[in-house]
Design goal:
Distance between the termini: 66 Å
Largest sheet: 7 strands, mixed
Number of helices: 13
Number of domains: 3
Bound molecules: NADPH dihydro-nicotinamide-adenine-dinucleotide phosphate
Radius of gyration: 24 Å
CATH topology of the largest domain: FAD/NAD(P)-binding domain
CATH architecture of the largest domain: 3-Layer(bba) Sandwich
Oligomer: single chain
CATH superfamily of the largest domain: FAD/NAD(P)-binding domain
Length: 459
């Protein structure tokens, strides 16, 4: 045995923590991982995975309707929500088992309980002390909400994934990824959805055309988006909730209130500051390019560092950490051209710069296409697809690519490789399309959007 019990102790068995620790274990390090909740973390247990299962479930509502246009007839379709939640839970249990097995197979010791740092090399779990040469903080994030009267009555995405029954009406506060995704899920399964956003539009930070097109499509599907609106207080009654809105006399009545107003790093109360680790004003662990905190022996990856809060990024950071310190292969994460998706209805896929970002950097050309997907010709659905390319005028490189429409996340994943390789518009144009697909539009866009349209910010 060395000077310490372990070479590495990781706090948090989510995507980033598990990847780092199992790789380190596989490279021969003596490792332990501490988890106070379910192995798998936010993405697998309370985020991406269960959310995507509910997105699939919700989409059947439209699929059943659209099938009629293709000649199918069927009786009224009925959703058994408790059955869906039970099936989803069974899948999460299976995945948790897979994660536990991966840890075992890589000789990672799993310690279940709440961890607290006693010093830069010591972690305490339920009165038991463990020492390690390196400590990795991978504790993720947690929903953050404004402290208004009655906020204790609301649910977050954590509870939304496990509702025992569906409400008739729901108010969702927030306009980010989570709010937009849950608005789509609840609306599709028949809940009346009112989305309240404090800004003028949803999805701040996304390309303006994406924001406009998605908001319009959501509104077509009967989701009500209340813009420039701030909730002042929430009151609970025996049969629902009343919301007081800034500047309005009438109360807004609903059956359930969900807040999706961002997430904060889960780093308080675990002894980090006492051990000398610097946290920023949001509580994020301040790290260098090697994921090292301000304390030599303490590192952090994933949402706990509040860099790019996406699962694949946390996994990349966890891998880079393990490669650097346990495999003698210094590895840094490349944060350029990280694609992302919003599993709204219809979904969004994006990679690279928004048009506004591109225009701030220099001159660019914009290619934009809006069309009705082939499936909706017979299906009859009034839903459009929007695809957009942004090209650097100086070197012809495609520097931004955005899509709202069916399969956007699947399509953008492939386009992201092209952007990572620095593909030019000429190379996009030289690529033969696959016909008939929506994706082929990305290699057949020939007409630049006229400048004056861009100035107006319109398609
Ligand atoms: P986001 O940061 O994406 O959005 C937060 C939203 O809440 C914004 O619309 C913001 O408004 C609003 N908001 C913030 N504070 C208040 C307030 N006090 N009152 C009213 N509105 C407020 O957070 P999410 O919770 O949606 O998601 C958290 C993280 O999870 C994201 O960073 C994302 O990376 C990740 N995620 C990724 C997914 C994916 O990849 N598909 C899916 C789900 C989550 P404003 O625009 O005005 O700032």
């Amino acid at each position: 045995m060395g000077r310490y019990d372990f070479d590495l102790i990781t706090l948090g068995a989510g995507s980033g923590g598990v990847r780092a620790t199992r790789l380190a274990g596989g490279y021969g390090a003596r490792t332990a991982i501490i988890e106070k909740s379910r192995v798998g973390g936010t993405c697998v247990m309370r985020g991406c995975v269960p959310k995507k299962l509910l997105v699939y479930a919700a989409h059947f509502a439209e699929d059943f309707e659209d099938a009629r246009g293709f000649g199918w007839s069927m009786g009224p379709a009925q959703l058994d929500w408790p059955a869906l939640i039970a099936n989803k839970e069974a899948e999460l249990e299976r995945l948790e088992g897979v994660y536990r097995r991966i840890l075992r197979d890589n000789t990672v010791r799993l310690i279940e309980g709440s961890a607290r740092l006693a010093d830069p090399h010591t972690v305490e779990v339920d009165g038991q002390r463990y020492t390690a040469e390196k400590i990795l903080i991978a504790t993720g994030g947690w929903p953050s909400m404004p402290s208004i009267a009655g906020i204790e009555h609301v649910i977050t995405s954590n509870e939304a994934l496990d509702l025992p029954e569906l409400p008739r009406r729901i108010v969702i506060v927030g306009g980010g990824y989570i709010a937009v995704e849950f608005a789509g899920i609840f609306n599709a399964v028949g809940v009346q959805v009112m989305q309240i956003i404090r800004a003028g539009n949803i999805l701040r930070g996304f390309d303006e055309d994406v924001r406009e097109v998605l908001a319009a499509e959501m509104e077509k599907k009967s989701i009500r988006v209340m813009r420039d609106t701030v909730v002042r207080s929430i009151e609970k009654h025996s049969d629902g909730y009343s919301l007081r809105i800034d500047g309005q006399d009438d109360l807004l009545e609903t059956d359930l209130v969900m807040y999706a107003t961002g997430r904060l790093p889960n780093t308080r109360g675990i002894g980090l500051e006492e051990a000398g680790v610097t946290l920023d004003d949001k509580g994020a662990v301040v790290v260098d390019e090697w994921n090292r905190s301000t304390v030599e022996s303490i590192f952090a990856v994933g949402d706990a560092t509040d860099r790019v809060n996406l699962t694949p990024v946390a996994i990349a950071e966890g891998r880079a950490f393990a490669e650097t310190f346990f495999h003698n292969t210094p590895t840094r994460v490349d944060y350029d051209n990280i694609p992302s998706a919003v599993f709204s209805q219809p979904p969004v896929g994006s990679v690279g710069l928004t048009e506004d970002e591109a225009r701030h950097r220099g001159s660019c050309d914009v290619y934009l296409s809006r069309f009705k997907p082939m499936k909706h010709t017979l299906g009859g659905r009034d839903e459009n697809t929007m695809m957009k390319l942004i090209v650097d005028r100086e070197n012809d490189r495609v520097i931004g690519c955005h899509m709202v429409g069916a399969d956007a996340p699947e399509i953008i994943q492939g386009i992201a490789i092209a952007l990572k390789c620095g593909a030019t518009k000429a190379q996009f144009d030289a690529t033969v399309g696959i016909h008939p697909t929506a994706a082929e539009e990305f290699v057949t866009m020939r007409d630049k959007r006229p400048e004056h349209d861009a100035d107006l910010g319109k398609c």
